[in-house]
User: Fold this.
Amino acid sequence: MKIVQVCPRYYPDIGGVETHVKEISERLVKRGFEVEVVCTDPSGKHPKEDVINGVNVRRFRSVAPYDAYFFAPQIYFYLKKAKWEVIHAHNYHALPAFFAALAKNDRKFVFTSHYHGRGHTVLRNILHKPYKLFGSGIFKKADRVICVSLYEKERIKTNFGLSDEKLVCVPNGINLEEFRIKGSVKNKKTILYVGRLERYKGVQHIIRALSYLENYKLVIIGKGPYEGELKKLAFSSGVNDRIEWLKDLSREDLLEQYKSAGVFVFLSSFEAFGITVAEALASGTPCIVAETGALKEFIDERICFGLRNPENVNELAEKIIEVSKREINLSDLPKDKIKIKSWDEVVDEHEKIYNIRS
Assistant:
């Protein structure tokens, strides 16, 4: 079977969607499928054609103001004439999926929307309403829509009127084996954040809470447009000397940070899944998350704890002290809430979906 994966960007660019597409594409190749990734490269720094771990990659230049939208109509013309049996598009919040839907013809069209119903900025949130006129067409064209959480599934049903028959819930996966690190020493007074540095991610609340946490340090791993504001806040709050700012870590170094942290904190105001939370839990590190979006599905008050109002830094600081003292085992993972799957299990589900007749 020949499958084309369509997404805004691809490895070596990093992000949640980029990781998702890379993990499933490489596993599909190992199972004997022919896979091409069609994506954009607004920077122009990557090869136009590439082969990465057996996956053919084709990149088109795009217009991406504020690192968003990824306008590349060339994708439509390429896909229209390409001989692929399955087109699998990713990410409602960028235009490559829209061009892929237009190019469907009589081929099977699968859509993983990563939909959270809002834009990441005020402007992008305003643009969501007119974009729905176009974006709704992606859902209509899709033979199957893959949701990465129950939260996302309900949002799509409510906002686009889709039936349960068309929607399939398949959570993101993780590489369970790589989290079985031995010999790591856990520092109970280390707080960890991993993710994009955007205002809606809530990192600013952790920095403010650090003022109330004597002898605690904060490790922030990530980059993004809000980094400058966060660093100003850290200096003005007098806590920058207890913050370690990291980015572009190797996978091995990132896994070590997960494993050695005392508590992982993720206070995003909206997420379709929350893969860094799943990775922290798989590392045996207790988590604190905002009671919003799909993050609520991780909360079990045993190893993952929720906060209704992350802006209350006193409450956040108290919760960090309480949770960082806990010892957890991997066997305590919250299977009754959202099953943390391996990527191999995720690809098993994808194979079934690709073989379902329209």
